Amino acid sequence: MTSLLEMKDREYIPNKTYVKLLIGGGLAFSKVFLTNMSDIKKLSRKPSTGLKYVRPMRRYKLPEYKEGMQYFNKNEKYKRPTLWCNSHDKNIIALAHQLGVFKKTDYEFAEVAFEWCKRNLELEILKLNDVDQTLQQGTGTCIHINSVFAALCRCAGLKTRYKMFAAIENRSMYDDLYDTMMRRWYDALGYFSIEADIEVCIDGKWVVGHAGPTPERQAAMGVPITKFGEESIGTWFEAVPGTIFITESVPYGVGLTMSLLSRLGPGTLNTLNVNIINQIEAGKKILEAKGGEKKYDEEIRARFKPKFPDIDYKSYKNIVFER
Predict the structure, then answer these.
(1) 302 φ/ψ angles, rounded to the nearest 5 degrees
(2) I want to staple 279 with a disulfide (CB 3.0 to 4.6 A). Which of 83, 190, 220, 223 is the partner?
């Protein structure tokens, strides 16, 4: 059992900024639920697409773990296992060895770990679980996917931390993925999800990365195919001012939104995940039409300007963030 001292030391306990986000999210959800109860009941129980979500086949085969495989095993901040990010898991260790851990430079390993997560793990909105289960199923939220990336880096002994924030999402995510219930929730709060970039310390400098979206999804969103060293903020996310915080661990409470959604809105959750599959397929067609990732990325970077929903988060006055 985790002690209170360990919870504080590893930053499991929500800080002031995140407590405000939890309160704001809860109030927004309550407002939408209570003022639209009959509509939400219909929307949440019956998938608006009429299709049932089926998890896609895993894109990879997990490598075999062998006894004695080396991994970083010291209790050092930013290098040790934390909530949902077990860098000592056997599947993480085996995958790290497949990717060349302790044989590549720190930057080379972090980059290859980033690319592996980005290209092999697909988005699925579901409850939080540890990196072992994420690797077993091959899907997860951005937090799941980035936690696998973080665990691989920590397995290699690299200092790795979360840069968390309340995310204002790309216009296409709002238009193409959300059903009516999700849009009402988003509109009530001014943002929907708590997101995180991952920062890895290499040669004394923190290098950022967000491995969440596959190249296909980024093509469908009309954004560049990001690389290790590039932020999600300003590309397909914006951060609500005053909500960014650095933490060693995903804090308790981050999975609350998904737990509420899976319990009260299974139809909405189904629709969201069906729309994600459709988005991936649309992105594949875009990349094919452009002649591949390289040509698409060159073209989009030459003219790219991020687009976000026209929502005034300031109108939600119950929570005030520091500036």
Answers:
(1) -70, -25
(2) 220
Mean residue pLDDT of the chain comes to 89
State percent of the chain over pLDDT 70. Answer: 89
φ, ψ (nearest 5 deg) of residue 122 = -100, 150
Structure confidence by residue, pLDDT tens digits, 110-163: 999 999 999 999 999 999 999 999 999 999 999 999 999 999 999 999 999 999
Among the listed residues 263, 264, 160, 174, the one whose alpha carbon sits nearest the alpha carbon of residue 209: 160
Residues 150-161 have pLDDT tens digits of 999 999 999 999
Return the structure tokens found at 169. Answer: 């999402």
- The C-alpha angle 128, 133, 136, rounded to 5 degrees, equals 140
Three-class DSSP category at 190: coil
Write the Ramachandran bin of 261: left for phi over 0, alpha for psi from -120 to 50, otherwise beta: alpha
Residue partners of 177: CB distance under 8 A and separation at least 6: 272, 275, 276, 279
Cα 288 to Cα 98, 172, 250, 281, 282: the distances in Å are 29, 20, 37, 11, 10
Per the structure block, which two tokens stand in for 133? 């289960």
Domains of the chain: 16-315 (3.10.620.30)
- Spatial separation of the C-alpha atoms in residues 115 and 290, rounded to whole Å: 21
d(CA 204, CA 79): 14
**DSSP letters of 144-188?**
HHHHHHHHHHHHTT--EEEEEEEEEEPHHHHHHT--HHHHHHHHH
Closest residue by Cα to residue 257 from 194, 177, 315, 178: 194
Task: Read off the amino acid at residue 78.
Answer: Y
Sign of CA dihedral 233, 239, 241, 245: negative
